[in-house]
Write a structure and sequence with these properties.
three-stranded antiparallel sheet; alpha/beta; 10 helices; 229 residues; five-stranded parallel sheet
C-alpha cells in the first residue's frame, strides 16, 4: 500500500512523512536519498555531468536497495556518504533531466512494490505513484514556510532574515512549478492540507486522520468488491 505526501519546499513533508510512517507501521521511502545515491555513484565513477547518456545508463543500471532507513548502492551502505556537501551541489544534474528522472522513478516503483510505504516529494502522487491508495498535498503560504525555515535555521545556529529565505523559496517554487518532468502540483485526487497556523503535532494528527480515513475507505471498497459466496 502506497501513501504519498507531496508539497512545496518548506512544508515539512519529510518529518511528517517519517512520523506518519512510524505510527502506521509503514516504511518511509526517502526518495531524495535515492537521487543522492545515484549522484554519489556517478561521482565515484567520474561520469561527466554533461554526459546525459552515460548518466541515464548509470541511473538505469544502478543496484539500489532501500532497507531499514538506509540506502545501498551495489550492496554498499552509503547513507552517510550521500549527505556530503559535494553531493548536494551536484544532485541537480540527476534530478533535472527528464530521461534520468524517468529511470529513478522506475527504481522508486521497483523498491516500493509489495511494501507498505509512505513517500514524499513533489511528484510522488502525480507521476511516480499515480495509483497510490492515499495522496496528501501538504502546503502552507510562502510567508509561513519562510518563517518556519528561519526558526529551523536559528535552532542550528544559522541566522537569515525572513526576506532572504522568502526570496530564495519563491524562486525555487517557480522553478519547481515550471519543470518539464516532476513539476510541483497537487494530483487531481489528492487531499490538499493547508497548514498555516498549525503546529507540527497538529499537522501530524491531521495527516494521520486523513490517511486513516483513506485506508478505511479503501478497505471498505475492497470488501464491497468481493464476490458473494
Amino acid at each position: 500500500m502506497i501513501i504519498t505526501i507531496d508539497g512545496p519546499a518548506g512544508a515539512g513533508k519529510s518529518s511528517i512523512a517519517r512520523r506518519v510512517a512510524n505510527e502506521l507501521g509503514f516504511e518511509f521511502l526517502d526518495t531524495g536519498a535515492m537521487y543522492r545515491a545515484v549522484t554519489w555513484g556517478a561521482m565515484q565513477r567520474q561520469i561527466a555531468w554533461d554526459d546525459v547518456d552515460a548518466l541515464v545508463d548509470f541511473a538505469d543500471a544502478a543496484c539500489l536497495v532501500w532497507q531499514d532507513d538506509c540506502i545501498y548502492l551495489d550492496d554498499q551502505d552509503i547513507s552517510e556518504e550521500i549527505r556530503a556537501p559535494q553531493v548536494t551541489r551536484h544532485i541537480r544534474h540527476l534530478a533535472d533531466p527528464p530521461r534520468i528522472r524517468e529511470r529513478i522513478t522506475a527504481q522508486q516503483r521497483r523498491i516500493a512494490t509489495g511494501r507498505d510505504i509512505v513517500t514524499e516529494g513533489r511528484d510522488q502522487g502525480t507521476e511516480v505513484f499515480p495509483d497510490a491508495h492515499c495522496k496528501i498535498f501538504l502546503t502552507a503560504s510562502p510567508e509561513e514556510r519562510a518563517r518556519r525555515r528561519q526558526q529551523q535555521l536559528a535552532q542550528n545556529g544559522q541566522v537569515m532574515s525572513v526576506e532572504e529565505i522568502l526570496a530564495a523559496q519563491n524562486q525555487r517554487d517557480l522553478e519547481d512549478r515550471m519543470r518539464p518532468v516532476g513539476r510541483l502540483r497537487a494530483a487531481a485526487d489528492a487531499i490538499v492540507l493547508q497548514t498555516d497556523g498549525m503546529t507540527p503535532d497538529e499537522v501530524r494528527q491531521e495527516v494521520l486522520r486523513l490517511v486513516r480515513k483513506c485506508l478505511d475507505a479503501s478497505a471498505t471498497n475492497s470488501t464491497s468488491d468481493d464476490p458473494i459466496a
